[in-house]
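INFO batch 0412 | record 1 of 1 | parsing
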Amino acid sequence: HNTTIQLFQFKMQIIGMTMLSLLAAPRFASAFSSAAKFGVRASTARFMSDVPMPYPDEKMPFYALGTNLAMQVGGQGNLKTVLEEDEMEIVLEAFCESLRGTAVVGSQDILMKYGQELNKILQERTANIVERVKKDGEDYIANFLSCTEEATKTESGMVYYSMVEGTGAQPTTANTVEVHYHGTLTDGTVFDSSVDRGQTISFPLSGVIQGWQEGLALMKEGGKCTLVIPSDLAYGENGSGDTIPPGATLKFEVELFKVS
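INFO prediction complete | emitting C-alpha cells
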C-alpha cells in the first residue's frame, strides 16, 4: 500500500514538474482578463464560421476533447518549442498507447525509470528558450530605439513613443482608463487587440502589468503611443497562457480615450 502511494505521489510530482517546466505559467493570467474573454469568443466565432470542421457535428465533441487535452498538456505550440519532431512523435505514440491501454511497459515503471531525466531535459531546454526570447527582446528594443528617434527608454527599461499627444487628464494607478490597444510579440504575432475586436475596454490601471501602469501614466486623454515592454515589466518568465511566451517582450499601440 505504501509503495503504491509513493508511486502515485512520484507520478504526480513528475507531471507537476513537467507542466511547470513546459508552461511556466498559470492558465491565462492576463492583465486584460475581460478583454481576453472577448477575444476568445470573437476568435472562436470567426473560426467556427470560416473554417469547415474536420468531422461531422455529432463527432466534434470528441475532437474538442482531444484539443482540450493537448492544450492542457502542452499549450498551443509550447511543446513544439522544446521537442524535436522525432521526439514529438514518440510523445504522441506514448500518449495514444497509454490512453488505449496498449502500452507494452507499465506507466509507473516508465515514470520511475525516466521521470527525473525527463524533468532535467525539459528544465534545461525551457531555460535556454527563455534566455533566447529575452535576448531577442533586448535586440528588438535596441533596434526600435535606433529606428525611432522620438522614442525614449525609461529607467525601468520600457520604451515609450508618443504618436499623438493628448491634451486631457493624465492617469495614475488610482484611475480607471478606457483604451484601445493592439498587442504584438516582437515577431509581429498579434496576441490580443481591442482594435481588432472593434470595442474599447475600461479597467483600473492598478490592475494591469507594470509596463502599462508606467506607460499610461505618461499619456493624456486623447493621446496615442507605442509601448515596448520588456518581460520583467510584463509577464516575466511565466508568460501568459498559450499566447505570450515566457520571457517575451511585448509591443502595444495604445490610444487613451478616457480617465475616470
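INFO post-check: The first strand starts at residue 152 and ends at 153.
INFO record closed
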